[in-house]
Amino acid sequence: MALRKEHAGPPLSLALLLFLGGCAQRGFWLLHPKGAIARTEWHTTVLDVAVMGGVVLVAGGLVAAFLWRYRVGSGSRKYDPTYTSSLVIELLVWGVPLMIVGYLSYFSVKSVFATNPYNPLAIRHALAHPRQTDEAMGRRADPALVSATAPGAHAPRALRVDVVTTDWQWVFIYPRQGVATVDELVVPVRTPVKFDLTSATVVNDFFIPELVGEIDIMPGMRTKQAMIASRTGLYHGYSDDFSGGGFSWMGFSTHVTGRAQFNGWVRRVRAAPDHLTYARFGQIARPTINLAQRVRYFSQVQKGLFDHVIERVMEGKVYRTPLAMTEDMTKPMKVRLIK
Known about the structure:
The structure is a single chain. The chain is of the alpha/beta class. It is built from nine helices and 15 strands. The protein has a domain at 159-325: Immunoglobulin-like (Sandwich), CATH 2.60.40.420. The protein is elongated.
């Protein structure tokens, strides 16, 4: 018995650590949405899992019950040669699944319209009902922010951001502000953000788990996405589609700030000495692994740069990646490293 107790300690400790690991929020981004789009997707996921989990549990329980009741030697089996059908069984077999499918379909359709990248109703609802959004996010409303988005007040103007992916960096262009960044996205809280996205190389996925779901970004095409952040903070964004040797480092930081802080950030970026022309973009688009996630700022952006990138890709422009990158990650000699 003593030997058994000694060996029981490590498994019990490991199980305890696994359960306690669920208490930490860091790393479990999908479980802690901080935006209207992410919250809608999370609620839909919870609903689907709960309903289907209930179906599995009930079906499994019935299977176990029938196996036990009609086991060999139980004496509960009766043969009725006149039995042909049962209305109750027919209603259960067909009616219950139809009700479940209809229930899930209804909420799935609602979720699709709420998170539609081109016209997300979840953002409209968040702007029209800020207090409900605060309660859903689990904190008190900030009167200064609610007054700006309350019904009858002037809704904040949407922020437009053009996103271009390269191997393996993110370029964020703010057309209205006339600035651009590499590997850093800064947006004001409770302000709709509308993205136009394209890729200069291969297909990538734009994904900020706590704020907005993933969407494909394709070369030579324009994709749209939208989001609104309900809380300030630092969030992690990355590509969710394998795109070569530097994929593991293809992330970007997302800063959600107050409106005043955002305006101050724009003023600081406008003081940067570097300008983003198409020639400069060509240098950035060369295969580059940003190991230290170093952020770069551009105080001026060539007009129409986003559309020009799309046009050049459609014309066949290619930023070639050395094949050695996927064969030997220990010797990326032909790929620029930013440390």
